Amino acid sequence: MPPVHIALARKWRPRVFDDLVGQESVARTLSNAIAEGRVAPAYLLTGPRGVGKTSTARMLARALNCDKGPTVTPCGECASCREILERGESLDVHEMDGASNRKIENARELIETVRYAPQRDRFRIAVIDEVHMFTTEAFNALLKTLEEPPPHVRFILASTELHKIPATIVSRCQRFAFRALTVPEITAQLTKVAKAEKIPATPGALRILAEASEGSLRDGLSLLDQAATLSSGQVDEARCAEILALVDRGLLEGLYSAAAAGDRAAAIATLTRLTEAGADPRHVLKEFAALLRRLLLSAAGSPPDAEPAERERLMTLARAMPYENILRAVSLILDAEEQVRRVDDPNLAVQMLVLKIAELPRLRDIEGAIAGLPPSSGSSASQAPPARLETPRAREAGPRIVSLVSVETEPEEPAPQAPPPGGDPVARFHDILDSRRRVTAAQVSLAESVFPRADDLVLRFGIDRAAAKEALEDHAAKRLLAEVAREAFGRPMRIVLKTGPPADGDLGNVARDLPVATISRERASTRAESDPMVKSAMELFRGELTEVKEEE
Ligand SMILES: [Zn+2]
Questions:
Q1: Could you tell me the distance, in angstroms and rounded to a whole number, from the CA of residue 80 to the centre of ligand 1?
Q2: Does the pLDDT value for residue 420 go beyond 90?
Q3: Helix 24-35 crosses helix 53-65 at what angle (to 10 degrees)?
């Protein structure tokens, strides 16, 4: 292992068109167009994730703006080339993630920026990743510029979902369709990388990793990285199978049982334990799907081929859910398998699936009530919680990672109350913390507000204090906070770290000073909300997404 580990996916990011694996026709057409001096005002790169769209956008930007260009072989040494190679952007190349900047004001700001003449290079280039996430208004603003583009402006749009981009936009772009890679193509590239990186790996092992990466070279390289890190010596088939099968059967059944009982919190907690143990969420989904299919067959009276003990086990599990709910769960899984391939955050997609399945016992009760029947009884549904028709979206059993709350949102800060006997627990929290660990207390003192909310102790930081919040997210720090909170409140409290607008409310001012990475991290919740998976889940739950937070 080298002393500083650079992720393989990053290290092996293609830098010249010839390096693009599996996208020969894209590479050829682009190279020819540049060589012949035909430069379109806008390009649209579409295709699945992890196959080279963003890398191509950056190569194209370098090709167009290289000091020696426009050229198919940018020098890599001029200021423009170096800046783009280092950080994906330059003085005149502006990269924006459409998923977290989907609003009209984001689009306007970018368009305003590129409208001015280039400061140094040939073109002002706007790169917009995941452009399909734009709102209609944002698309309209973009369209207006595409209709009459200033001569020095070039747009490079990238998207995994072509069908979500208005035809009016698509028709004004030169489009390049990227394709998912085949298993032999990924295997070949992994073999090349393993050799160059001196990772001892058997051909069989590399093929297993290629199969698991489902068409995405980026995923394949990440898996190779993981395999190399986790194997001290040879990366062989057994080791790879082990890495890919980090799904604990007991936990998987626990996940099913919690969901079957409608216990959202337990289901999400179990899912978190599964993924924390190192299992890829996509793989968890695959295994969960396999389990549910076996349960469906058992419930349908044709148990799968298995040992008698295993059959008995499956029958017992299958009885935890009415047959029609298992059927519904399998159908939800089919949808999720489709979605998980397309989204950037498979974990969130799997969480949503689990929450939907955990909702099934309630739907059944509601159906019964609508039909004028008493809530279902019998062995299968007896484990479901009683119908809560008066408050079917009750929050108290709400999930822990993604909080879906009923439409009537609760106030952010609690109503002022008389301090309980024994003094204000928040003040006590500060005092105890101060006596335990000064550094942590100092970081906490930077919080905008600290207040209890049900069983949570919320610490909210202005986004300009994101660094303090991040420091507290450290495992040891968070455990200390939980211990101190428990002492101060006399009961277990969960520590919730949040960011919000800065004290003076001037987000724009802060945004200029903060690293882009910090802002995009803090905008993760915006991205989650705009995710189609989350949206459809919102419809199912008729809720609002108030926050996305990591389980501690
Ligand atoms: Zn150059």
A1: 6
A2: no
A3: 10
